[in-house]
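Per your request, structure below.
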């Protein structure tokens, strides 16, 4: 069998790193698009990076950007991929309120640029396309649990940009017969989750508080509910979505929802701390039940102009057609993330700055 070739945009992100590993394990030649940065941005993939001078290197990185059409066209032309996984995005919902235009450029028009690259190069019948769509499309939810047929109502510039990405993918499938699919993925996390998403922000703070390197954790809305799974399971789902006889869209979710508050409680419990809540609204605090010290405070700056209150996915279609199941429970996910952040800090890892 000839070796399959994959192109992953966003390869330096959480999902890109897990997916690159998965595809390399399956024998693929993997090309990844990375952005030029003034500091190293390949920390998540350094261990799988192979020296380009090695003749049999199966993992290659290329500079590029979702805002640069000619770059994307050249990359698709050079790599002639069997599968493209479009994971690149300005993926932070709150940041999208600060950078709405850039978010639209990268997350919406970026998808169009890649699809056009495939079309212009005449690869429409060869290259399968995966678009990283999101449960943020549901936003102000119209139905619970959310499934493939639930109407969308995005609540952020990020969600609105991703809505375009979703529909342009459907449109190229219907207009030109592309094998192009949306994975509508609910939140998925891991020890290499970006440090400013709420789960990782919490597990890093819990580890830092345990080791005496930080006093408090500042958060926004504790009552938002999310359907949290493990990124490892979700990249397996992405791959399965592109292996079907027909191109279709799929929800990937665990079918369980928890509040940010529950995540906080569970994470602190990993270090033997029970959290007791008192006060209301922005005055609410979480205290360590044993010492009485305040370890969680509310900072209004982390509230969003418009919030997504409740997400809960129904992955019945993925179960039936892809044989996909999440394998990591919520307690195990939290346990793994806290343990990893404790190990990282103990080994001298830095807390970094600007943790939102
Ligand atoms: P990350 O934020 O960890 O990674 C995003 C990746 O996109 C990084 O490699 C980043 O590069 C790259 N990127 C950002 N902007 C550009 C650009 N203009 N040009 C090229 N590359 C760019 O996200 P995740 O891995 O968590 O998510 C992957 C995808 O899935 C994203 O599209 C996200 O919106 C979507 N998604 C994620 C979910 C989740 O829960 N994780 C759920 C549903 C959808 P750099 O490293 O240089 O910043
Ligand atoms: P989300 O993830 O917006 O769901 O998008 P995030 O972890 O940022 O927020 C989840 C919920 O937690 C609340 N929250 C806070 N969030 C952050 N980041 N920081 C805080 O201090 C804080 N306090 C409370 C938020 O208000 C929100 O309700 C993620 C991203 O990966 C998207 O790219 C992806 O599409 C969706 O998941 C599915």
């Amino acid at each position: 069998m000839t070796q399959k070739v994959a192109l992953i945009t966003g390869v330096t992100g959480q999902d890109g790193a897990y997916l690159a590993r998965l595809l390399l394990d399956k024998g693929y030649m993997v090309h990844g698009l990375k952005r030029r940065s003034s500091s190293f941005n390949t920390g998540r993939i350094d261990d799988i990076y192979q020296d380009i001078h090695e003749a049999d290197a199966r993992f290659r990185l290329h500079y590029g950007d979702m805002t640069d059409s000619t770059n994307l066209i050249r990359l698709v032309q050079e790599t002639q991929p069997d599968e493209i996984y479009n994971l690149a995005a300005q993926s932070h919902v709150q940041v999208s309120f600060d950078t709405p235009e850039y978010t639209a450029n990268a997350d919406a028009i970026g998808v169009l640029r890649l699809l056009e690259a495939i079309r212009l190069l005449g690869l429409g019948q060869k290259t399968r396309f995966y678009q990283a769509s999101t449960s943020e499309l549901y936003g102000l939810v119209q139905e619970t649990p959310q499934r493939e047929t639930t109407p969308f109502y995005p609540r952020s510039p990020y969600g609105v940009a991703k809505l375009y990405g979703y529909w342009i993918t459907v449109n190229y499938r219907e207009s030109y017969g592309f094998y192009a699919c949306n994975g509508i993925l609910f939140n998925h996390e891991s020890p290499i989750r970006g440090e400013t998403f709420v789960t990782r922000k919490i597990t890093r703070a819990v580890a830092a508080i345990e080791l005496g390197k930080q006093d408090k954790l500042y958060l926004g809305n504790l009552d938002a509910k999310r359907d949290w799974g493990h990124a490892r399971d979700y990249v397996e789902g992405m791959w399965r979505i592109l292996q079907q006889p027909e191109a279709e869209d799929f929800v990937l979710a665990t079918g369980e929802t928890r509040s940010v508050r529950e995540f906080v409680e569970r994470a602190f419990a990993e270090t033997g701390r029970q959290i007791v809540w008192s006060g209301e609204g922005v005055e609410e605090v979480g205290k360590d039940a044993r010492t009485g010290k305040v370890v969680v405070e509310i900072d209004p700056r982390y509230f969003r102009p418009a919030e997504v209150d409740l997400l809960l996915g129904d992955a019945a279609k993925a179960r039936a057609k892809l044989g996909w199941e999440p394998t990591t429970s919520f307690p195990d996910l939290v346990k793994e993330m806290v343990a990893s952040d404790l190990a990282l800090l103990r080994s001298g890892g830095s807390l970094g700055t600007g943790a939102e």
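The pocket of NDP (ligand 1) is lined by residues 9-10, 12-16, 33, 35, 37, 41, 65-67, 87-91, 106, 132, 134, 185, 187-188, 194 (CB under 6 Å).

Regards,
D.
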